[in-house]
Amino acid sequence: MADKSVLLIIGGGIAAYKTLELIRRLKEAGIGARAILTKAGTEFVTPLSVSALSGNKAYTDMFSLTDETEMGHIQLSRSADLVVVAPATADLMAKLANGLANDLASTALLATDKPILMAPAMNVRMWNNEATKRNLKTLKNDGVLFVGPNDGEMACGEFGPGRMAEPEAILAAIQAILAVRGPLTGIKALVTAGPTYEPLDPVRFLANRSSGRQGYAIAAALAAAGAETLLVSGPVEIAPPRHVKLVRVETAREMLAACEAALPVDVAVCTAAVADWRPETAAGSKIKKTGEEPSAIKLIANPDILARLSGGVQRPTLVIGFAAETENVIANAADKRRKKGCDWIVANDVTTGVMGGERNKVHLISGSGTESWPELEKGEVAVRLAARIAAALEQAA
Ligand code: CTP
User: Fold this and answer.
1) What ligand 1 atom has the least distance to the C-alpha of 324?
2) What's the domain range around 355?
3) 72 part of a folded domain
4) CB of 321 closer than 6 A to ligand 1?
5) Which of 66, 111, 160, 360 has the fewest C-beta atoms under 10 angstroms from its C-beta?
6) Per the structure, how many domains does the chain have?
7) pLDDT, tens only, 86-140
C-alpha cells in the first residue's frame, strides 16, 4: 500500500477530531494523506495538528501563490488515488451536488478525476432534510461513495442518524476502494448472513428477524483486508459490499449447497440466522381457505451449516460461528462451540435490540478463553474480527 495516498477534505463539524485519528490509522496502514481544511474545518482542528500527523503540509483557504507554485490546486486534487471528505458536512455535500466551487475544498472536489468517498456528519434533522436527501441521491447517482453516517447520540444532544462513521470503518472503506493488498490478501473467505426463508407454499414462509448487517459488515471487512470473499446471503435489504462476491439464497438447504460449492476456503464465518426447522412439506400451490382451520404444521430439522463446515472433509482452517443468546450468554455460547465443532464463537446478547440495530456487544470465545469486547458499531466489530482472523491465519500458516 506504500504507493497509495488519499486527499482528505476536512469539513467544519465536531466530528473533525475523529479525522485526526483517521490520519493516524492511514499512516499505520501505509496510506499517504494530504489534507485540505475548509475554513469551518479550521475552527475544529488546526492545520498544524493535521500536518504534524500526516507528515504533509495541510492546505487551507489561505492557499497562497507560493503553494500554487509548489503544487497547483488542480494537481492537488489529482495528487491522490482517492478523495475522502470527512466530515462531509451538509454544506460540502450541497456544494458538490450542485457543482459549486468557491473555496479550495469545493474546487478540488470539482476538479478531481479520482473517486470520492464521503463520510457525512451532521445533525439528524439536517441529515433528514429533504434538500440533503436530494443532494445525497444526486451524489450517489454521480458515483460518489459513502461510508456512514451511523445512528447515535450527537454532540448537539439529539439522537439518530448523522454521526460520522468511526475511523476504523472509514479506513476499511478506503482500503476496499483502493483494493490494495491487505493482511488477508491470498486468503479465501466464506461468510453466511441474513435469515433463511422456509416455504410453506409459494407465497408463505417461516423466517426470522435477522437483518444481515453484521454478516455484511464482516464480509466487507474481510474483503477490505484483501480476502477473496464470498457472501452467501438469505433475503435482506442491504446493498452488496464492494469487492465481495454475493450469492443470494432463500432456504437453509440452498445456503448449505452454496457454502459447500465454495469449498475449499481458509476461513468461514457463519453469521446467518438459519432456521433450525422447516415445514416438512411445502405445498406446490397456494394453500386456500377451506372453511376449516389448517391442521398443525409439521416441522423437520434443517442441516446445521456451521456444524457441517466444521466437521467436513474440506474443513476451513478457521471456522467461526455466532451465537445469539438471551440468557447465560457465555456459557450457552461456549457449549455451542463445542457441540458444533467450530474454532471460535462470537456470542451476543440479543435481548438488547442488537437484531436490526447498528451496534453490537460481543464476546469472542475460543479454545483459549473468552474475550469481552466493548459495545461497538457492527462495522467496528467486523474490522476487529477481520484483524483477529488475519493474526490467527498467519499463526496457523
Ligand atoms: N447455524 C447454521 N445452521 C443452522 C443453525 C445455525 O449454520 N441450521 C449457525 C449460525 O449461523 C450461527 C450458529 O450456528 O453461527 C449458532 O446458531 P444458533 O441458531 O444461535 O444456535 P442453535 O444451534 O440453533 O441453538 P439454539 O437455537 O438452541 O440457541
Assistant:
1) 20
2) 188-396
3) yes
4) yes
5) 66
6) 2
7) 999 999 999 999 999 999 999 999 999 899 999 999 999 999 999 999 999 999 8
Residue with the smallest CA separation from ligand 1 atom 25 is 336
Q: What is the pLDDT of residue 20?
A: 97
Over the chain, what is the mean pLDDT? 92
163 and 152 Cβ atoms separated by less than 8 Å? yes
Instruction: Tell me, using a 6 A CB cutoff, whether residue 336 lines ligand 1.
Output: yes
Q: How many CB atoms lie within 10 A of CB 87?
A: 28
pLDDT, tens only, 327-358:
999 999 999 999 999 999 999 988 776 666 77
Instruction: For residues 345 and 285, state if they share a domain.
Output: yes
Q: Are residues 78 and 96 in the same domain?
A: yes
CA of 323 to the centre of ligand 1 (A): 7
Give the per-residue pLDDT at 1.
Answer: 46
47-62: average pLDDT: 92
| Average of per-residue pLDDT across 368-393 | 93
Residue whose cell numbers read 459513502: 146
Domain of residue 131, CATH code:
3.40.50.1950
Amino acid at 19: T
Which residue has its alpha carbon closest to ligand 1 atom 27? 276
- Give me the catalytic one of 156, 259, 270, 342: 156
Q: What is the CATH number of the domain that holds 373?
A: 3.40.50.10300
Same domain, yes or no, for 151 and 32? yes
Question: Quick one: which atom of ligand 1 is closest to the CA of 309?
Answer: 7
Q: Which of 255, 210, 182, 258 lies closest to 357, judged by CA? A: 210
Q: Can you tell me whether residue 135 is helix, strand or coil? A: helix
- The reply to whether 334 and 200 lie within a common domain is yes
Looking at the predicted structure, is the pLDDT value of residue 370 above 70?
Answer: yes
Q: Which of 146, 178, 210 is the last residue of a domain?
A: 178
Domain boundary among 178, 207, 229: 178
* Any atom of ligand 1 within 6 Å of the Cβ of 276: yes
Q: Which atom of ligand 1 sits closest to the CA of residue 332?
A: 29
> Could you tell me the pTM of the whole model?
0.66
- Whether 270 sits among the annotated catalytic residues: the reply is no
Q: Which letter does DSSP use for residue 185 in this model?
A: T
Same domain membership, residue 162 and residue 259: no
**Residue 183 falls inside a structural domain:** no
Hey, what's the torsion of the CAs at 54, 55, 56, 60, to 10 degrees? 50
